[in-house]
Task: structure prediction
Amino acid sequence: QTLTHGPTTPAKTPSTSRSVRTQDFSDRRGNKSTPIQTSRSAKAQQHRGRRRSGGFGGCASGRQTGPRGAVSEEGVRWDGGGRRSRGVGRIEPVSPPTQVQLNFNNLEDFPPVGAAQSPPVATKPSRRINPTPVSAERPNSKPKSCFISTPLSLPASPPALPESAGAKLTAGSPHSLQEERELLRKERSKLAQQTSSPLKTTPVICTPTKTVHRQGSKVTPDPQSPCPDPNKVTQKSELDLLAELYCTCISENLVPCVFLELFFVLQLLTSHGVSVSESGEEAITYLGNVHNCVYFSVRVLENQFELVSHLDKCTLRLLSENERVGTFSSSLKDHLAQAQENCTAKVSIIPFQPATDNRSNFSSDRAFHTFKKQRDVFYGFLREWEDSHKEPGWDFEAALGSRVRMMVSQLTAAGSHSHFARLFQKQLIQMCKGPCVLGSSSDAPDADLLGMLGADSLGRLKRLQQRLVQPQGLIGPCPPPSFPGHQEFFKCFLQTASCCQLNQHLKDGLCQQLLKLDEVSILGPDASPARGEETGDGDMEQQVRRFSSVLLTARLLAKFLGFISFLPYQTSELPSRDIQDTAITLRSKSSPVLDVCAVLRSSVHRRRTILTVPWIVEFLSMLDHIGPLLPFYRTALCLLLQIYKRMLLGRGGELCYMNQLLMVAVLGWLFQIPIFPEDLFFSTDPKEEVKELENITSSQGLDTLPLVDQQLLYTCCPYLGEFRKLLAAFVAGSTSKSGGLIRKITPTSAELRGPSTSRSQQKLQVDLEQAFFHNQPPSLRRTVEFVAERVGSNCVKHIKATLVLELVKGGEKTLRDSLGLEGVNTAKLNDSICAQLCDAGMQALETATRFCSENAPGAVRVLLPLETSPSVLTTAESITTRLATEKACSWLSANITTLLKREWKSAFGRVMKSVPSSVRLSAGSSCVSDCTHKVPLGSEVMIEIKEVLSVAVGPRSEEEAYTVHQIESLLDRVGQTLGCRKVIGTPSTDYLFLIRQLIERGLLGEEEVGTNWPKLSALSWPEVIASYI
Amino acid sequence: MMDSVSSSSATVADKSVKRMQICRAEYRVIGRFVEQLRPTRQCMKTLQTQFPHLPPSTLLSIFSQEYQKRMKRSMARHHAPDVIKEYYQRYRSEAKTRPAAPLLLELANQVDLSPALLARLIVECFLEERQASVASRHVLNNMLREPYLIPDLLLAKHVEQCTVNDCCYGPLVDCIKHAIGLEHEDLLRDKLRETNLSFLDENQLRAKGYDKTPDIILEVPIAVDGHIVHWIESKASFGDDHSHHTYLNEQFWSYCNRFGPGLVIYWYGFVSELDCQRDRGILLRDGFPSDIVTLCQGPARGRV
Result:
């Protein structure tokens, strides 16, 4: 049995009261009751942000999914950062949280639960802050420190706090540090005795439900915990005030992670009361009983209803069906019930796209063929990983390490890193772009299943599978960065390959694509969401899908870019202060892989933060220990903090709520993961940055469009699903039976837009065109650009296939004719024909213009709404035609000559090779006139001939003999077969060879060949045969 | 093989009448049985009598593959210089005493070496002896193809006896195998056309610059037995464990890696347990599937 203090709290301060706490403990240890609470809280703690999680033994397992893997080092690093901030913030001794926090910080004093069995943690004393659990089971805990400690530790008290509240909060005089420490020591010694607890060895596995039954400690109704009763709530007015205060902190983004607070509130809601008689403790116990906890929680939920209502349907259902909510606020229950009706979710799959790389992309045949092998080797690894990575004891390095390195070294030899990097990146996007439920893997799209079941059933089936396969442990709302699903393969591959060339090429490729994605136009730049009727539903839906696709790809790429970029600096432990300083000085000199600050500022100015911030967050989450200390990244993190602090939910003016929610969620997560220096959150705002952020140049941008839907939110922030798990666990009475997770599969649309069209146009024309599009729905521009791009491209293809082919054919004819003449100089002939062809090639531009004018208008017309006015239509058609022609002609004028020369070269070679034998080859290329293609197969005839031969040559038995008739019949069939070009195919010389064998055996005379094969003579074969005979 | 002389109108399609998927256990039985066989038409008859329920072509294919494995295993034994010398000396001495007997064929059967391979070794020795230098591959191949190019007419006769009687190795077998492969690819194309499925064949794909190309790529994927099929590979042989794994590594996975799931047709059947990669994108069949589902139109209907 681990720490049994119920739900953890976002507060930093452990505020416990000795008596109750102790009693609690002995209770628990005695009868092992309420395993639900314990397992849940333990789990929640394990995966809390570093602040809460400290060095819990169970933490290690959770953390190892993160890139850095080790827990203790985070603790140390954190400690360093934390201490500095505290040094600064010490001005306010009033704040009890910080003081006590120091206690918990000291891992020597307060080792993590389960540390006894976790050597790394034990041997590396980490002074991480332990999670600070608060719950009804510690009825005497000081409520004020439960929930507002975080904002309170701001050096300057937030102006938003009402005077009275502030006074109240500071008034609660802190326990003496000694007292607290004493208490926690006791607790620690208790924990130390519990080393044999099964929970410690397998901290992530949930307590089985049956245990609950056996022990008769089901949550509802729990004989030990009283049913929360609104009438038993004490100190209502104080609680109201506190709730209001707390909500203000949330609303004003004064807490580092809004969702962490929400998680806490839900933990309070689902806490299991322990009927503890109020001991005469001097501390005020606002949340001292389950009634107060639930009351407070419901008040906060009511206040934060808008935020809550944006959670997924299942969470809302669970909330609305939660009897405590109903008991304490029927109106909240009704609102929740209403809200869930507005929720929708869709399921679709990621399509498989085969990639092609042909020879012309490689410097040499050798490189091409090496890469051909590498591709298969790479997929071989992937399959092997899929097959075995879940098997116990399987290790990437041990199983694949040497082979991966060998493959990479072959890449080096062939110099095809860039190709492999591209393949790697494409495959990464294809396999990992979609959502990965935390802790699950193997997301292969089941096209077959989809075909059989249809998308709806497939979704259900998947969810079922999820429920059966996926461990349902709570991991808390701020899990450390991880590489779920197939991402792990790619991560391990890079780690194992540890190839600097490959990494460099990947960095180049990732950077390029990220910046391209960041610039991608989801809509026309001037699109306005206000034009309701013009931006039809279909358009919006398409935009949302496109945005989702772009965002998810960007986040994935950014994570890997961060991973590769900071990989060289990753250390298992936080370096000492001296080394830190040296490293900072050293690394400040070289330029960072990506100018995140510039990208961020630009995105703010152009109001595209909804796209940029989420991927920057992914990138920065991969930082190494020193990274955040570098001025450059510190600035970036400060910028993000500013953005967060300004991102007040529901008060963003034009900003859409869901957009804000996504940003608040990802930023809050970033601020809670181990890498984020805590002091930063409470540092004073650099004024100039604030100013800079206000300098918004664009009147409209992505931020003002409703681009984020719930599906995207949950895909980007799978940890939001923790709310649902928490509530479901409450219903089920056990964490092991949470309601199952709905795995969402994100629809991805093909990236339609090609490179932007030629910009070398007269400025006026361009301006006019822009003006035209300005007042049209954005879909019009997209359609026009798309069609132009496609038509232009088709035009080029068409010209390649027709005009070029015809010209080359004509050239071949000229060549053949000229070769027949006496005294020709082939080299001269070649040159002159080539020159002629290139001249003639210039007509390609005319052809292209004609092609585009013929095809572009029709295509646009079909794609635009029927109701489009004629003049708009005509304009769109002419713009499309112009763009398509421009595209085609610019390509053609640059490439047609080269293309023709290349084609001619190979045609010339072909002709020269075939000329000497061309006469003979031209013979007999078709079947005899009345051929029905129903002749014996060549192979059969050949087998028969061989059979006859083997009998003829012997040794043979008495009964093995052929009559003349049989031989004649065979010959007849041979004749038939030879008469049909379709059957005879290419290996005609093989037949002739066999027939010759027959003749040589004396089985056939030459005359017989003549009489039995009348058809052969018609086919001009005899002369060939004659040549053999 | 004698059968086909009398029933000459047999077509490839007729072979599908007999069952051609064999479970691994049964395959092992056949494998054990063929261990004692030699690649002669007499032995083929024995094999057919032993397993009358299997089509002769399937049996021949199984035997041929097993025999090739056997030859590869014993290659080192037969190719040791002193062993070759001994074979040659034996032939030489016997050729003097009883030139009319099928000497090389007997020797081959006696030492369990393919007659055609033995003939090759002997001709090689013969040429070395005469010219005191190693003969070129080209010359050697030509002499096996047309034994009467060999200056020694008696040797020529014996060599011919070997190549003509060997049903697993030799120039004639190569011709036949080549033809069978092409015919089945052709058959596949015909079936696809009959079913109105449009496709790109290997040559078209190569022209487009693909690095690895299956026989057929469907322009619009189909579904067979609920599995998506993008490409089809035709194999005019029996799919046993060894050959299938070689093909998987050298071809099928490569196709999957490039084009997605596909179908492999082993026209002469296969070990049924090998059809276990369906979910990974490789489906096995022993003939052209009749249960094709196409996009939009449901089950495809052939014109036949």
Remarks:
- DSSP finds 49 helices and no strands in chain A.
- Chain A has a mean pLDDT of 66.
- Chain A touches chain B through 52 residues (CB under 8 Å).
